[in-house]
Amino acid sequence: MERIGHLLKWIVMIAVALISLLPIFWMIMGAFRPRQELFQYVSLEWHLFVPVEWTLQNFIDLFGDSTKPLGRFINNTLLVAVSVTLLSLLFNSMAAFAFSKLRFRGRGVVFAVFLSALVIPGEVTMVPTYLLVHAFGWIDSFKALIVPAAVSVFSIFLLVQFFADVPRELLEAGKIDGASWPGIYAKIVLPSMVPALITMGLITFLGQWDAYLWPLIVINDESKQMLQVAIATFTNLQATEWGKILAADTVASVPILILFLFLQKYYVQSIVNSGIKG
Q1: Are 74 and 227 in contact (CB under 8 A)?
Q2: How many Å apart are CA 69 and CA 31, to the nearest integer?
Q3: Relative to the CA of 113, which of 103, 120, 208, 245 has its CA 20 to 30 Å away?
């Protein structure tokens, strides 16, 4: 019975994995189909997922379109995503360290008020954030995308849970040895938090890589636009270029897949260490 239970568990896990990966597989295969074949097969058969006529024309059209240079959009998105991720790792980890390990008057109240921002939808704060960005003269600037996203309440809350597991005695030993709080933060706490920081970095990078609404609002200059907004422009009232959209989505998925493949062990380790189940 135990073997049957393990077998059933593996069958369910494989079935869930296949169902999750099927749309991604269809997207990649669709990028290699000619336009007339994309919606030719609608019934559940082999050709629904594997092209009959393979072609690279979608990718040629995608990278050959000088009016919408995909390489520039990728560079713009990469610049913003990397900048936000690095700044977020720095500022959010320092804030989480302060909330979890430093003792100061009103810490609990400040942290509770800070966490209350988690229940406020992003759409509510979007208008005042836009007015601030406009007042600073950052419209059509990468600063409008980087600075507001450099601090995240969710990331601070996530890191506080990990930082709380660092023994207080370890910090006291550092103080006895003459280390300052910045030294303890940099040399004792951060090295033990690598899995948590990588997890937060992955979440932050993915959020910025897939950002659509905020870049659409604050960036009007097409040469500075982000990747997801650029992909959306392939849809218009005259015709939707589905082949180019699937090719662009495939290209946009590659960096995320590469990052996850190289960093997945740290991601899994952070989840295991946090005690999260599911």
Answers
A1: yes
A2: 18
A3: 208
